[in-house]
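Below is how a single chain appears once it has passed through the pipeline. First comes the sequence as given, then the structure the pipeline wrote out for it. We keep one example in the README because the format questions we get most often are answered faster by looking than by reading.
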Amino acid sequence: MTLRFITRFTALTAALAVCGLALSAHAQTPPKKEDGFQTAAPYAILIDADSGTVLFERNADKVNPPASMSKLMTTEVVLHAIAEGKLKYEDEMTISENAWRKGGAPSGGSAMFAALNSRVSVRDLLHGVMIQSGNDACIALAEGIAGSELAFADMMNKRARELGLTQSNFTNSTGLHEPEHKMTARELAKLAQHLIKTYPQDYKIYAEREFLWNKVRQQNRNPLLAMGIGADGLKTGFTKEAGYGLTGSAVNNNLRLIVVVNGFKSMKERADESRKLLEWGFRGFEARPLFAAGETIGEAKLYGGARSRVPLVSPTAVRLLVPRSTSDKLSAKIVYSGPVMAPVEKGKAIGTLKVSRGENVVLEVPLQAGEDVGVGGLPQRAFDAMGEMVINVFRAGVDRL
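Resulting structure:
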């Protein structure tokens, strides 16, 4: 059993002071509340694509039907297989009767209109998914990669856990409504952020305005692309149960934001509210640097080490988007499970820097050991053991409360 430690450090305090932040000593994350911005979206989140800073959220952790927005996960599984060398863009998949009837022209839903029994390349099927939201393209990819759509859904769930999407659950490749097929706005935003950063070349497909297949020319379904606000992705969704949703991204003055909304009653409301959120974010926030890559942010206590503490760093630069004018209190803390057992290798994942604005956690940055620390001598280990024994007595008392 381990305790959750909050650590203080001079560099952290100084850097946060520059941004008007205070270091918090509270271990528990307080309940969230909505920011000052108002939206009609039942579910919504707006984040900075670079840092992951949360600018706005509403019911962002409540699971709901994602409809076709879950095709972002379908696309990720395919692109990940290509990146691992298990699949090629030139590989061809057969449009089975199941894919054609359930997801193609006879279905009446969004389709690529691929012909029954035709062979289509992975590259073209990806275009059919990312531009036209083709259910037939999704099912063909699922069957071609995993043998069946159900087996592919298992791959989607496994990959989701690897990406840290703990609440998402997939039962098909299309997003067609099934009761257990669910995601959250926060995890959709996190998935979009991953796609943008990991597959920058393939991500450009989301910005293509139209795609022609089987003599059927279709426009990209994303309404943000035509608004002149720097939008270049990603995915819309609609089912009767989910309502109208959108996961979008736009760039303005070198700042990329990601917006997720869901549960609207009309396409117009979805488009208008998504635009309002993005424009509010671009207008109302500015980036402030906190730490350079590799700069010491704090320390973690060691058990049995040659030194009593190990410095914590982020391998990438840390910046925070903050409101241009706000009355909300900003605070930060480093949380880790400890004490950390020695030896520790440089780069070992240890803790997380959490920055809050008001009652909402707006930025989480993984931290790792900044240097190697070996095992300490016998006197040091004996001293640490005595300290751990005292802590265990404290734990036993807490457990009885």
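Residues 176 and 216 are 22 Å apart (CA to CA).

See the next section for the split statistics.
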